Amino acid sequence: MPGLADCQSFLRLLIARGDPQAIPLAENAIDQYLAITPAAARGRGLCELQRDARDQHGAAVGVQRSFAETVDAYIARKLTEERAEIGG
User: Fold this and answer.
1) Does the pTM exceed 0.70?
2) Alpha-carbon distance 51 to 1, whole Å?
3) Segment 7-20, tens digit of pLDDT
4) Which of 60, 81, 58 is nearest to 16 (CA)?
């Protein structure tokens, strides 16, 4: 999942499908993005992914909305981890 745009596109697709069994795919995409992104850019990228997931949440209904919430929560956790690494 190289690059922010690729990760973002993939997450949008997964949110649109709303399949709860695809949550590990979303988490893996985010983890892969973080693995290839320089530490200095990770926080900004995660914020962009989170904004996009929240935008998708606002336009979604039913399972798509729930999936977007799950993606948002995972990104929030990763942001917290990134900030802890920088601060600690």
Assistant:
1) yes
2) 19
3) 999 999 999 999 99
4) 60
